[in-house]
Amino acid sequence: MTRLTVLLICGSLACTAVVRGEGDEHPLPPLLTGPAADYAAKEKALDDELITQEEAARRTYVDVLNAAIAKIERGTNVAEADLIRAELKRFAKDGLDSNPSDKQPAVVKSSFKALQKEEERVTLAVAPKRTALRTGYLRTLAEVEKTYTDQKDAFAVNIVRRARGVVLRRTAVETNNLAVLGTDPKAAEVKDLAPPGGFLVGLETGQGPWLGFQVTGGLKPIFATADGTTAEGKSHGNFPHNVRTVAKEGYAVGGLLVRPRESQGHKPVLGCIQIVFMKINPDGATLDPNDNYKTDWLGGDGGGKVKEFSGQGKMIVGIRIQPGEIIDNLCLVALK
């Protein structure tokens, strides 16, 4: 039988009934196709409802800050206007994935808190609909899995389990049922998460200079998506990230080894890293720590004592960064 890898499991944004193997295409199991398409359409409708309200709230935030700049510029506090412009630039890049600088004036801090509360409100308003939809879909998946198990159709069972994994990963991210793994999670405040239902499969890395050393100067995460493609996260650090490292078929990022680069009188920064790839279990929602391989050292040209952190088989769905001109700190975000 041709070895197959499920690339497309009816995520929330699209549902295409194919499973790609080594040059082959196979339809999704018949008992899954209808329920998955129905689920995907309803999930997308909820996404659209949420996005519409979130975009309105974010436009209000930008409008308030622009009005504040106009008001300030009628006076003499040019420096404060420049601070708010810097916040608009940060917000255009990171949105709510990072926070305004502590140096920002009161109007920015209060408006940002108001934005956070509004986004929380609209998310909570949609949550009961999502819960009902996903509960019903997961119940259907359990019934479909039982049918294919009774029929001894291992291929179909594997696909159904991976479909479940997409839903569980997305739900965990939306409910913040996540753990941050790293040497200094509190300092790594900028998050970069996979698209809905996705997970981390690689990194782009590059070097940058720091106090006479070459350290990790640029970094970008690479995600597997629910629709079977890959997607790039944000660029972090001010230096190129031109070395692309992606898991081989059937594997995903499961942990990291890092070597911090230290210099007297300075906080450590990210010297170099090794990625630990782990095999994706048949359930599509966990990894096998016993089946793994490591990359070469990536990023800088060395560092201090090796530190290791791992999800211990939990799926990794994003990263958190403490960025500057270089990468000061890198953490993984795992399902709990």
Question: What is this entry, summarized?
Answer:
The protein has 336 residues and is α+β, with helices and mostly antiparallel strands. 38% of the residues lie in helices and 31% in strands.
Describe the overall structure.
The strands form four sheets. Strands 9, 10, 11, 12 and 13 form a five-stranded antiparallel sheet that branches. Strands 3-15-14-4 form a four-stranded antiparallel sheet. It has a four-stranded antiparallel sheet with strand order 7-6-5-8, with no helix packed on it. Helices cover 38% and strands 31% of the residues. It folds into two domains: 1-176, no CATH class; 179-335, Jacalin-like lectin domain (Vitelline Membrane Outer Layer Protein I, subunit A, Aligned Prism). The model is unreliable at 1-24 (pLDDT under 50). It is built from four helices and 15 strands. The longest helix has 45 residues, at 106-150.
